[in-house]
Amino acid sequence: MNRIAALRAQLGGPRDGAMLRYSLGSALLEAGGATEAIAHLRAAVDRDAGYSAAWKLLGKACLDAGDAPAAAYAWRRGIATAEARGDVQAAKEMRVFLKRLRARD
After folding, report:
1. 3-104 adopts what CATH topology?
2. pLDDT (tens digit, 9 = 90+) per residue, 30-81?
3. C-alpha span between 81 and 19 (Å, rounded)
4. Domain ranges of the chain
């Protein structure tokens, strides 16, 4: 069983939480499935709005899917979340992503 199938098999079970959804979203994104990844990453932040890594990856998935406004929104939320939790590195990375996104326009 591949990684994505193994993660999908856990959906709806006792381990179905923010980390599982993040892991599945990450695996899908790596496999080129940005659109499906977005759904699971959104589920991750719905389950834990303080999960700054999920906000960061959600922004990347949105950008890969061609939705720059959604990417910017995810990164802004992620920056606020990271700052509130003291996750300085994640906030810094998402600021860089936002800056690059603005430079593209």
Report:
1. 1.25.40
2. 999 999 999 999 999 999 999 999 999 999 999 999 999 999 999 999 999 9
3. 16
4. 3-104
